[in-house]
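Board notes (copied after class):
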Amino acid sequence: MKLIAPIFQVTLLFCAFFLISATPAKAPAGYVIGDVAEDFRLRNVDGRFVSLADYKDPKGFLVVFTCNHCPYAQLYEQRIIDLHNKYAPRGIQVIAINPNSPAIVPEDSFEEMRIRARQKKYPFAYLFDEEQKVFPRFGASRTPHVYLLDSELKVRYIGAIDDNPEVPSGAKKRYAEDAMDAVLRGEMPFPNYTRAVGCTIKKKP
């Protein structure tokens, strides 16, 4: 396995340091476990507007706040694709949302989203929270930050995808996957909340 480039490592270490020093121990403002999520309507990279109501008879949604530029988002990119490929046929749809302002990070503009989705062949909707109204409602603060909703749009899990951002094969706890399996069995996920690890969401001035 190739070593991560030094600059990439420094970026990860900086993000990790900021996470440890700045993230509160309690869950951020926004939805908590058991809340019913409000539907939204955001533009997809194909130009269409997408809402949760567009999906017929879903068994749930894994809403992932992510982006183009963040090293953590990039490290989890293939894992998000894999989660969609595994769980979409079972009824849980992955929906990715970019919450960042391109005024702060040009790499996260809608056009750059379209380019990346095409290059990486995203099999799921990649939506742009252009007015930055959806991510505060959820309480998302990082990229990636995931919210698992059941068929009634009740929030069942909030947090990280797994416990090893850098090495997918080294993950010992696959939080999102375990939570989706629990929801499909009609059970409550445990744990239902973990701390999301990633870059802070970039809010427009």
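Comment from the instructor: The helical segments are 6-22, 71-87, 110-120, 134-138, 175-184. The radius of gyration is 16 Å.
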